[in-house]
Task: structure prediction
Amino acid sequence: MKFSLGFSPCPNDTFIFDALVNKKIDTMGFDLEVILEDVETLNLWALEGRLDITKLSFPAFFQSSDEYILLNSGSALGKGVGPLLISKSPVEDPNSKIDNLTIALPGVHTTANLLFSFAYPRVLNKKFMVFSSIEEAVLSGRTDLGVIIHENRFTYQQKGLHKVTDLGEYWEQKMKAPIPLGAIAIKRKFGEVAGKIDSLIRRSLEHAFSNYPFISKYVKQHSQEMSENVMRQHIDLYVNKYSIDLGPEGRQAIATLHNVYKQSSNSAVATDSLFF
Result:
C-alpha cells in the first residue's frame, strides 16, 4: 500500500522518520510518498484532509479529528518543551504591558498560539508568520514580541533577544501536565492498518536511538543552517519517551489540552474518539 506522509524538516521529525522513509528498517510492504513542510502548512493541509499520514499541531488535530485519528508513536510532547515569548528589550512586568502589544506567532492552528492565548487571553493583536521569521520580526520592530518554537529556543539569546515568558512552564504550573506540541495522525479510513503504521514509526525511532548521538545524513541535509550541537539539543528536547509511546500520562496530557481547546472553541468532540 502507498501512503502520503508529511512532516517538518526539523531535526526531531527527520530523526524519527529517517529509518522508515529511507528503508533502513523493513517497511512491511508499505510505500511512502514523503512531503516535508513547515508545521502550519501541514496544519492547513490536515484541515483539507490532503495527506494520509501527517505531523500536525494538536489544535489542528483537534479540528480535523473527524478525518484523522492519533497514533501512539511519533508525537512531540514533554516537560520543558514549550514555546517562549521573547522581546527585543527586557520586559519587567509583561502582565501589565502586554495586552496592547503586537505579537508574532507561528500560525493560527499551532499549539504555540493556543498556549499563548491560555497565558494571555486578552491579547488580540497577533501577526501570524512562518516560525523562522519571528526572531527577525522582533529584532526589526515589526512586532513588539514574538513566540518562538523549534531550534529558535536555542539561538534567540545569541541574537540579543530576551525571554519574557516560558509558555510551557506556565502551562505546566497551571495544569500539572506535560505539554502536547505536535501529533502524528492517520486518516480514519485507514484504521485497519493504523496499528502497523504506528509500529513502523516506533521501530524507526528505536533504530534512530540505537545509533544516537550519531546524526544521520538525512537529518543533516534538512538542517543545513544548524550546527550538530543544535541538532542534538533539538532532538534531546523534543524526542523522548512520549515519542515512542504516549502512554497513559501522554494521553491524559492530550485530554487536558483538548479540554482547554474545547473551552476556547466550543467544540463538542469527545476526547476518547481522538485515539485509535
